[in-house]
Amino acid sequence: MIDNHKTFGRCTARLLIAGLLAAAAGTPALANDSTAALSAGGLIMVPNLDIEMASEDLFISEQEVRVRYVFRNTAKQDQTVLVAFPMPDITIRESLNITIPNDASDNFLDFKTTVDGKPVQTQLEQRALALEIDRTAMLRDLKIPLAPYLKQTQAALDALPQDKWKEFEALGLGMVDEYEAGKGPERHLAPQWTLKSTYYWSQTFPAGKALVVEHKYRPSVGMSAGTLIGLKLKDNEYAAEEQRQQMDQFCVDQAFLNGVSKASKASKNSGEVPFSDARIHYILQTGGNWSGGTIRDFKLTVDKGASENLVSFCGKDVKKISPTQFQMTAKDFYPARNLGILILKPYPKQ
After folding, report:
1. Any signal peptide, and if so, which residues (predicted)?
2. What is the pTM of this model?
């Protein structure tokens, strides 16, 4: 079993990972079996030079993300600021499937927050943007839900008169989708806007004191029936570029590739990479928004779920603390890039 972790680099992180592309000729097409992950992360606030992030303790698995912050107000007076947790943007595209942990709720990641152990009453702001123009009021006037992934939203769009269909297309709000799914020809107005959601509240930070803020949510995990990692893609430039991006994003190194290669050679199906993959993204760079721009004490724990799984992510001086968990700690940590975690899962033995 090979586990990989490398130093955080100072490059711009990609916030969304696309589904797997069709691989080279002779290998299976993977795109239709893929879902993409939504990137979520930490808290942001109105800039304040007096409030520092003393520590951040971050735990990430496929089932849960937990974060425990300790903030300290270094001023001589209390500071009351707006604190927000931005949910991942959601845009429905015909060619892209995304995983939504709780699609029956506006709180689609089941986000919860406590301050010094007490639940916080947050407010929710949601907006619908098409071509970077806010169309929230228009959708609400037409009684169309803002969440583009809901069945009720599709039903409301399909019920609009044809002149509205044309208007929605012209504004970039919708696209006419025609297909055959076993029930005869179907025609729908597919939503094309982007949903932006933010939970926020006003928080008072006592002068000269520490304040513990904790939140947890269910991550959106991108999944594929196969993986690009380890495939030979010399004849497929498009897929090879996606593979290179994934290797950079998850800090895949030669040791990790050797582990994949060893499993592939042992597979009954010659040339097959016998893994599915799971991809988790966390927006880490917001930790640099607090006083000083660094996190004084930072701890990251990643749980890969099962001992036979392979995991790769970017980190420094990572230690294995259990059969499935890996941990890194750092002082005065500067989050130069966002975090991507790749978990490869062996196919069930037959």
Report:
1. 1-31
2. 0.81
pLDDT of residue 93: 72
In CATH, what number does 3-121+203-346 get? 2.60.40.3680
pLDDT score for 289:
63
Over the chain, what HEC string results?
CCEEEECCCCCCCCCCCCCCCECCCCCCECHHHEEECCCEECCEECCCCCEEEEEEEEEECCCCEEEEEEEEECCCCCEEEEEEEECCCEECECCECECCCCCCCCCCCCCEEEECCEECCCEEEEEEEECCEECHHHHHHCCCCCCCCCHHHHHHHHCCCHHHHHHHHHHCCEEEEEEECCCCEEEEEEECCEEEEEEEEEEEECECCEEEEEEEECCCCEEECCCCCCCCCCCCHHHHHHHHHHHHHCCCCHHHHHHHHHHHHHCCCCCCCCEEEEEEEEECHHHHHCCCCCEEEEEEEEECCCCCCEEEEECCCCEECCCCEEEEEEEEECCCCCEEEEEEEECCCC
140 pLDDT band, cuts 50/70/90, is very high
Mention the CATH class of domain 136-192: mainly alpha
